[in-house]
Write a structure and sequence with these properties.
The protein has 165 residues and is an alpha+beta fold. The protein folds into 2 domains: 1-44; 49-162, Immunoglobulin-like (Sandwich). It contains 3 helices and 10 strands; from the N terminus they run αββαβββββββαβ.
């Protein structure tokens, strides 16, 4: 009799194992699917548009500005293009390192950006120890979640100027 009881008990534990294994497999598949979903979602950027429905990356092509810097006269930026420049990142490069300054934090930077034909000047701008500067335009556009800034590609749209004058 005891022998039969043990077998019945053993059958119940064997029946539970496939259920646990199936549930674990389903949980693992769901977790992997979520990881892949969020990974792919993170790779796609939210579309930012300007001037109606134009992708802001394409609008960067139309940005046209000149910049100059000397320690005695400071930093000057002139917007010649038809695109208002909302902000400007200044990447200061020195021996083996660089820092980036957001000119929107400068009290002299126009509140709504540098409109067509406008000039920004900061005679007090200093770049001690900096060998070269790259000025990178920052635009503002519309997205599904509201207004967003977009930093144009430094290699294509950045303007390099020497800091040693």
């Amino acid at each position: 009799m005891k022998r039969g009881v043990k077998k019945r008990h053993r059958k119940n534990t064997k029946a539970l194992s496939p259920v646990i294994a199936t549930v674990l497999l389903i949980v693992i598949v769901v977790i992997i699917a979520l990881i892949v979903f969020f990974w792919i979602k993170g790779m796609t950027d939210e579309a930012i548009t300007k001037f109606g429905n134009r992708n802001i990356q394409m609008v960067c092509e139309d940005v046209d500005f000149e910049a100059s810097y000397t320690p005695t006269t400071g930093l000057y930026i002139t917007n010649f293009g038809n695109v208002p420049i909302f902000g400007m990142d200044v990447k200061e490069e020195s021996a083996g390192s660089h820092t980036t300054i957001d000119l929107r934090e400068n009290p002299d930077w126009p509140e709504f950006g540098l409109i067509t034909g406008a000039i920004f000047s900061d005679p007090d701008f200093e770049a001690p120890g900096v060998q070269e500067m790259v000025l990178i335009p920052v635009l503002i556009g519309e997205s599904d979640s509201g207004r967003k800034t977009y930093v144009c590609d430094e290699r294509q749209h950045g303007v390099r100027i020497s800091a040693n004058a």
